[in-house]
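[09:14] KT: can someone run the structure on this one? pasting the chain below
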Amino acid sequence: MKIVDDLIAWLRYREILPFLEPFPASVLDLGCNRADLRRVLESRGWRGTYVGVDVSPDSAADVIHDLEKPLDLGRIFDAVVSLAVVEHLHDGRALFVSAANHLDANGSFVLTTPTPPSKPVLDTLAALRIVNRAHILDHKHYWTRTELEEAGRAAGLRMEHWHAFELGMNQVAVFRRARRES
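[09:31] RB: done, structure tokens below
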């Protein structure tokens, strides 16, 4: 089970790293868990500022916070990242607001989440104990591209890029601050 979960995580990092290059000076990781993103970036020579946020006190987070509530750290970051998190939230809109509130004017918010077609596949893999069952059972919502775009727009972000990967079972969305209309 751990091998498959680790493979999926590796594929996720492979998809998002190009959107973080050149590497940002500061990264906010919303839903950091074990802070694997920090290790992945550092293994590629990155030496910036990293702040990890997670709800679990057992995580490697710098800040313990419920991501279903808006976060205010009182600072901005060059990049905000949230990998395989929003599907675990009852209401993911606060995650988008938190990202927007901490994002530099020229920064990117990079998010991954499973696609709706992945639900039966993940449920089967979890039932067979090929992937972490508890993790899959904790999924609250499988977001469509349109839902991601709308949640971003409501938070003052515009989707700059979207694509599916892992045979359409996962998706990456990249947001930037929306330009104000004059």
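[09:33] KT: thanks! The radius of gyration is 16 Å.
[09:34] RB: yep, looked fine to me
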